[in-house]
Design a protein that fits this description.
With about 180 residues, the protein is an alpha+beta fold. The protein folds into two domains: about 1-90; about 95-170, Sandwich (Tick-borne Encephalitis virus Glycoprotein, domain 1), CATH 2.60.98. About 40% of the residues lie in helices and about 30% in strands. It has one helix at about 20-90; strands at about 95-100, 105, 110-115, 125-130, 130-135, 140-145, 150-160, 165-170. Strand 3 and strand 4 form a beta hairpin. The radius of gyration is 48 Å and the shape is rod-shaped. It starts with 18 loop residues before the first helix and ends with a strand.
């Protein structure tokens, strides 16, 4: 066996470094490059399509949020209006608002209170259980609807359109 067969100086050049081998390697490299670019371009197109879809979804959701905010604002306004109407119909406990020429039943049906005419500059005319009285803001009317009950009607305030007063009743301790 001769060692010359494996000697790189005297052996034939390998087929990889032949002109056909070099062309084959260059072809594979160029093909891989263009194939990679094509895959990359397709990925970029898919990414751009996904971004466009997400942007349109974001715009649609922003419009939905704006619509819901408008609806919420309208509902809050309606709730406030309804609450104000409800408060006007059923005022706070023992606090009453009365309009000119209107009468109310107060103190669990013990008192009938009516405002006669429009309020004046210095007072209002109230009819409490059939007894007419001229009162001003801060005045207290003492009424006994029956011998065992004493009630007070205190005028809180009044203006040209309404009067506000409180009513309280308790068992009469003097009787």
């Amino acid at each position: 066996m001769s060692t010359r067969q494996y000697d790189p100086v005297t052996t034939r050049r390998s087929r990889l470094w032949s002109p056909a081998g070099i062309v084959l390697v260059l072809f594979i490299m160029v093909s891989g490059y263009f194939w990679g670019r094509q895959f990359n371009a397709r990925d970029i197109q898919q990414r751009d399509a996904a971004i466009q879809q997400l942007q349109s979804d974001a715009q649609r959701l922003a419009a939905d949020i704006a619509d819901q905010n408008a609806t919420l604002t309208a509902l809050r306004a309606e709730l406030s209006s309804t609450k104000a109407t409800l408060d006007a119909i059923t005022p706070s406990l023992n606090i009453y608002n009365i309009n000119p020429n209107q009468s109310l039943i107060a103190a669990d049906g013990r008192l009938t209170i009516g405002m006669i005419g429009s309020p004046g500059n210095e007072g209002i005319d109230l009819n409490v259980n059939g007894k007419q009285q001229k009162v001003a803001a801060g005045d207290v009317i003492h009424v006994s609807p029956d011998p065992s009950t004493a009630c007070q009607v205190q005028i809180q305030s009044f203006d040209m359109f309404k009067a506000q007063f409180t009513v309280s009743c308790a068992a009469d301790k003097t009787g």
